[in-house]
Amino acid sequence: MRIQRLYLITKTFLSYGLDQLIPAKWLPWSVRFLRYALFWMPNRHRDKSAGVRLRLALESLGPVWIKFGQMLSTRRDLLDPEIANELAKLQDKVKPFPGEQAQALIERALDIQSIHDEFDNFVVTPLASASIAQVHTATLKHGPDAGQDIVIKVIRPDIRKAIDADLKLMDTLASVLAKHLPDGRRLKPREVVKEYRKTLLDELDLLREAANAMQLRRNFEDSDLLYIPTVYSDYSRLSVMVMERIDGIPVSDVETLHALGVNMQLLAERGVEVFFTQVFRDSFFHADMHPGNIFVSRENPDDPKYLGIDFGIVGTLNREDKRYLAENFLAFFNRDYRKVAELHVDSGWVPAHINIEEFESAIRTVCEPIFNKPLADISFGHVLVNLFNTARRFEMEVQPQLVLLQKTLLYVEGLGRTLYPQLDLWKTAKPFLERWMKEQLGWRAVLRSVKENAPFWAEKLPEMPTLLYDYLRTQREQQQWQRAALAEFQAHQKRFAQRVWYGAITAALIVSTSLFYATDQSPWLTGCSALALVFSGILGWQRGRRSR
């Protein structure tokens, strides 16, 4: 089975001419010979560009490879811009599996005899189908939310076997590329596959997705920006998730949004605010915000709200990364390219030995042209590619923790461009970041820190006298021990010095006595030297015994 799959993948790659993406000079003679030997698999798509050929090949190989291409489209530090743009077009809409089979999987996961024991109005025909799972509609039958419209997401049967098999083949292919490609160290194909494996396996765990949804819902509770549907955790399992059904307009359906009179400028600005709020306030962001996962509420067109679904992929940032990002954004907005360069070095993203002035100049060359322009006139994809090329010149590797952030930022750009092309991203984001930085660095940050830590200190306060006494007693005992150890060390050094001194004298007397005897000197001189030798040896031996 694995050999058959490998043959199909090889045939697909060669039929779409993907081998031509790698210069022949980079490949060993054995690989070039094998390509010539497979003469019955010629490139059948010579009329298409490299990016189109790669996209079509991945689409023909199925869901696992489609999602791999989607992930690669975010790694613009690794790919040519034309190829990255084509991969971004990949859609994982696939043929659904039978609804009766989905019903059986749901019943097995929930350990119920019939789906009608827990749900009413279950629709066998799926509402939507994707590469990993598909969704069916129903209504809750029991509990305080009885009658609530819901969706039931169920993982495709046997998808794990297919994923594991393809991931093994991907890893094998990545190993070959890492070994033979001259640029393999920078491209890191095995690390890319490892990153993809983690992302894909996370998406197979619907309990994780349910927890992500509940976290996001809590973060935006009572918010005017974003609504996250309720997850019914009592019905959620590893392969099944039950969630409130939402009624919204796809964010890509601009015609309907205009027809309802939605405030498109406010909607676009709120998209930017949702992104920065998730990243900088919560350090927890929806990292799969493509148009298929974002809707707009039909209520209050003048005060529009986003509706979010599909929470299999989320990103997090630690405090240091978040701080450096905010400072970088503000430095960009203020056109302080020197500050940007210094922050990259301080954070370790760029080696300390690079020339700051040259790095500053390179950043200015890329970023200066984009200011004071509406979003319609700016291609963030182009800017990112230029920034990545600049980064490579200065030995900067893309930080793994920022890959999802870059992907999400690209989605936000596309969202803003679709909704309101005149949106000034810089003008919208700058006040938010300035306010966030003041909260992090100003007196509010001090008060918040005191407030957050007050319960801990209140709990520890009764223990403080005992802890202080124990500390002072330990310090006194430690000082006494240190003084005793120092005195012992000094005495030992003194005895050692005496042993060295007597040893040197004894050695000198041995040499002199031997010379006197060998040169037939007077007996009394030789005898005195020998007597002194014996006396010195005895004293040295006694000193040695005392020092033990």
TrEMBL record:
It is a multi-pass membrane protein. The active site is at residue 288. Pathway: Cofactor biosynthesis; ubiquinone biosynthesis [regulation]. PROSITE patterns: PROTEIN_KINASE_DOM. This is Probable protein kinase UbiB. InterPro entries: ABC1_dom, Kinase-like_dom_sf, Prot_kinase_dom, UbiB, UbiB_bact, UbiB_kinase. It comes from Pseudidiomarina aestuarii. It comes from the Bacteria. Its EC number is 2.7.-.-.
